[in-house]
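Box 3.1 — From sequence to structure: UbiC transcription regulator-associated domain protein
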Amino acid sequence: MMDSLFGTVLDNTSHEQLYYQLYNILFQNIVEGVYKVGDLLPSEPTLVDYYGISRATVRKSMELLVTNGLVERRRGVGSVVISNQPSSALNKVASYLKRTVTDDGKPFKKVISAHDIKADDKLAKILCVATDIELFELKRVRYGGNTSFYLETVYVVHSYLPDIHKRDFSKESLRSYYFDIMHKRWVRATQHICAEVASANVAKQLQIEPGSPILTIYRVTYDQNNIPREYMIKQYRADKYYLVMNLEN
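Predicted structure (token representation):
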């Protein structure tokens, strides 16, 4: 399954090491569902030849995927995808949104904006910081082919992740950056799911009419010291997702 990797390149001039660049490419393809559970990743020799890198570099990338619980290496078979959910992410939730369709083309994320803002009263209260402190705001739209699915807005305190403005989150996983580059760990989150109508700006990004129904998740994520570290808003097209809840005794 090399088709999904065609056109991807490794940058020898980047500050990121080659093994991590390859890891991030594979990570993105796995968590976005391009490689599904049970799929084989391209073999080590294939990746070595395609990217012109050493086998040691490929193996280091694979080791990270194994560590994150995404891949299992099987003797005589290869590297098999065993999960599309990294073990380092928060995955013990009682509800989630599920796509109503699965054949809308290759998934990707487009960055709409990424810049610093001053925390207003609302954001300062949510993140437990002083008003006017610098926050980094990231807005991205998730697409499948030419179809938009959701708008994601993320707020983090810039001083907590000082180089976040240098990253390209159209290609890089935000979670991978948190966990694997910055070695941050979230331990819990609170979230609210609301049925809302799309504003003109949201409707434009989601390719729907203003006033159309959307599902919105408001999530605050905390570290091991119970400090809120991230505030995320995800606004989903209601015609593309539905809510699933798992109830256990």
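Summary of the box: Residues 95 and 245 are 4 Å apart (CA to CA).
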